[in-house]
DNA sequence: CAGTATCCCGTCCGATACTG
DNA sequence: CAGTATCGGACGGGATACTG
């Protein structure tokens, strides 16, 4: 496949396909939940403990969206106290590879991006360089 | 690298590295702009024509953020009428590969995800199935 | 234990109008 | 041509309080 044909996977149909997954993993907690569930079936509280900073509200929301996407299963056990297990589906597991690819890119290029922010912001704060 | 070690690229430091790039490509027009600039240096108007639906405002914003990240260069030519050329930097070009990887995943799994939405929403609209 | 409900703020995004 | 200014709606996300 040529380079142009590859970018068509992004541009094709106005990028509708890639948008739908970006609308999901663009959310703050999604990838953290998926990566954490890579360790196997897990309960709500255990997930919350393993993901520092996530609130009950946001963990619930994130899990519901992933369940709706068919990337995570939610299993309620009829017990007292209630026990709910979350687990990646087969499809959910396939998401990890491309996510890791992106994470590798991020880890490699973030330092440069942050340096770029610094210099860009410094330039923006200055009056534009003028001749004379 | 083990599967666990790979997901650490996502979970490491609370996912700060991957968040910064997701905060960029999570935005609606970013990847479309990057993929379009893969064709080479381009003017503002040409970009706008090649990206259906983007407004002047959003194209400007997107390009500024990409410039700040050091993924795109902005070159103003001192002419009348003004001519401004945008081009991917070396770093910007390296983003295309992981983006394509994600797009491939999206194209492959979107049909299943949309079917999942349909059945999930149908279930949610129904009263929960009860024994008896 | 595993959620819901409510409030509130910031940002994304679109639409529209104006300019060096 | 390549922007900027302003307005308004929608949504993500944090904090807090309540519940089967």
Automatic annotation (TrEMBL), chains A, B:
<feature type="domain" description="HTH hxlR-type">
    <location>
        <begin position="8"/>
        <end position="114"/>
    </location>
</feature>
<keyword id="KW-0238">DNA-binding</keyword>
<dbReference type="InterPro" id="IPR002577">
    <property type="entry name" value="HTH_HxlR"/>
</dbReference>
<dbReference type="InterPro" id="IPR036390">
    <property type="entry name" value="WH_DNA-bd_sf"/>
</dbReference>
<dbReference type="InterPro" id="IPR036388">
    <property type="entry name" value="WH-like_DNA-bd_sf"/>
</dbReference>
<keyword id="KW-0805">Transcription regulation</keyword>
<dbReference type="Pfam" id="PF01638">
    <property type="entry name" value="HxlR"/>
</dbReference>
<protein>
    <submittedName>
        <fullName>Helix-turn-helix transcriptional regulator</fullName>
    </submittedName>
</protein>
<keyword id="KW-0804">Transcription</keyword>
């Amino acid at each position: 496949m040529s380079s142009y044909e590859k970018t068509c996977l992004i541009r094709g149909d106005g990028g509708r396909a890639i948008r739908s997954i970006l609308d999901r993993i663009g959310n703050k907690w999604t990838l953290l939940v998926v990566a954490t569930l890579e360790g196997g079936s897990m309960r709500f509280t255990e997930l919350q403990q393993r993901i520092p900073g996530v609130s009950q509200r946001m963990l619930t929301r994130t899990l519901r969206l992933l369940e709706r996407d068919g990337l995570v299963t939610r299993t309620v056990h009829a017990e007292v106290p209630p026990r709910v297990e979350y687990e990646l589906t087969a499809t959910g597991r396939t998401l990890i590879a491309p996510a890791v690819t992106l994470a590798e890119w991020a880890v490699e290029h973030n330092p440069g991006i942050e340096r770029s922010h610094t210099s860009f912001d410094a330039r923006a704060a200055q009056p534009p360089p003028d001749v004379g």
